[in-house]
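Consortium newsletter contribution from the modelling node. Members have asked for a concrete example of what our holo predictions look like. Here is one, prepared for the coenzyme A complex that several groups have been discussing at recent meetings.
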Amino acid sequence: MSADVIRPKKGLEGVVFDESKISKAMPDKKSLMYRGYWVHELAETCCFEEIAYLLWHGELPTQAQLDELSQAERSQRAISPALTEAIRLFPKTAHPMDAIRTGVSFLGMEDENAWDNDRQSNERKALSLMAKIPTIIAYDYRIKNGKEPIAPKSDLTFSENFFNMCFGEVPDKEVVKAFDVSLILYAEHGFNASTFTARVVASTLSEMYAAVTAAIGSLKGPLHGGANEQVMHMLKEIGSAENAKAWMLDALQNKKKVMGFGHRLYRIGDSRVPTMSKYRDRLAEITGNKSWVEMSHILEETMVAEKGIHPNLDFPAGPAYYMMGFDIEMFTPIFVMARVTGWSAHVMEQLENNRLVRPLSDYKGPGPRSPQPIAQRG
Ligand code: COA
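And here is the predicted structure:
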């Protein structure tokens, strides 16, 4: 390789890939900004629809702008009979992340103008994906559970409508707010693995549906979005607060990776955890089931004391979703519902000043050598 080749750390740790105006993580301050606003303040003062507008347009919406976005989003929630039929044909054993990945790809095939890559067309696709992804997730959930899908309702907010499509009712306002907060916290996080995936796809001048489909594939891994599901499996395995400390000590002694802890950026704590933990703890009060929270507090204390490794957002989000009534395998699809706003903002930003992403590999294989005719190979 020539001398001017750059060899970054494995996993591209510490590499700045490109400029972005969408969000900024500040690990030394344990904080995160979307478009210059503190995320913990956005979570308390805004609804998820306002965050979608902010990520796409760079400013918080006025009431008129929010009304326009909400009306458009509500009017596009329905999915086609063909896609509904396809969902009915999905294998019952398929993970919902695979269902949503296939569903988004299907939406791309249905959109005759999927290839239009101008800003206005991409804003249209972003809104359509935001509106339809919850419907695909809820339909898949109900069909897999032997129930008929519940059509989206345009008189409900984004979060209220998702609860209604899953369970046929809208829960208490505080529960809906906790869900909305989780979506706001999950919406965007710089050049994480799935967003980077989306930007790489966009850089080839492919289209939005392809970028989002690829990003979903990336998010599903347990080192990324899939961790929120693994956290809940872990809490269920531990079973009670009395077992929590011994379980953690044993896991650490056996050098296990404990899901929901650690972060490539946040070595002293994840900026989003205090807000989500507050809402998780409130859900425990509302539901009257404090065991997940008691267990979580002990696990966190033990991990921080033993290793100095702090929880990430998936740690409080997992049990929060469980207490809201969602099946564990719905947790990462819910992350998709939120993060599609960030992915689509990044696809649009990539296209504003695009250059094909095409790194090098450092070849360590054999050769050079010449192939033998097959009869002479031993
Ligand atoms: N449990 C136990 N030890 C952990 C850990 C965890 N969750 N996360 C990091 N560590 C330890 C590593 O074993 C390593 O220790 P060592 O130096 O003695 O080998 C050290 O901390 C550095 O970890 P490393 O894996 O190199 O960090 P990374 O930046 O590559 O990984 C994650 C970051 C997120 C992939 C990693 O922390 C992890 O696997 N966490 C669990 C999965 C998870 O919650 N993912 C969601 C992320 S938002």
